[in-house]
Every structure is written in structure tokens, then in C-alpha cells.
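Could you please consider the sequence and fold following this short note?
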Amino acid sequence: MRSDGVVHLTARYTIETESGGLILVNSEGYRHGPPEVMDRLARDETVDPQLYYFRAFMRFETSDPAASWLNRVLAIGRGARQNRAVRLEVFEVL
């Protein structure tokens, strides 16, 4: 967490497609909001995502021919922290 209360997020993870293909995701973003909301998130509570800012950008790497188009795009995501989980809605930047 930065001194201004912004959480700078970086993540690298792999997604497996239904057909078994692997996609490496590189993600970076910010999460911030009112102190009381951030305290609730720190306690792992599910909080309405309208009450805080959680955005990220993503790049992908894959050798899966069916998903190779991902190697050529950037995406942005809108996130929500839920109890013991993170939910991301991801959109290709056109």
C-alpha cells in the first residue's frame, strides 16, 4: 500500500482453457477507496464494488492456437474483492 492509501497490484497467473490450453496473464492495477471501505476489504469482507476503485490492465501469453489472438491484445479489467476471492470483468482494448 502506498502512503496515499492506494494499493498497487501486480499479478502473474495462468488460466487453463476448457480444452487444456494455458494462458499466462500479466496484470497490474490500482485499488483504493474510503478508509472504512478499505478496512472492510482488509478484513476479507465482501464489499459493494461501487464503493471503491479497482482497475487493472492485462497482457497475455499463450502457445495455444485457439487463444493465440490474446498474444496481440491489451485488456482492461474492473475488479471486485469478495470473501476469499477476486472477480475481474475483462475487456479487450479496441
User: Anything to note?
Assistant: Residues 14 and 24 are 4 Å apart (CA to CA). Strands lie at 7-16, 22-32, 53-62, 74-82, 85-92. The mean pLDDT is 95.
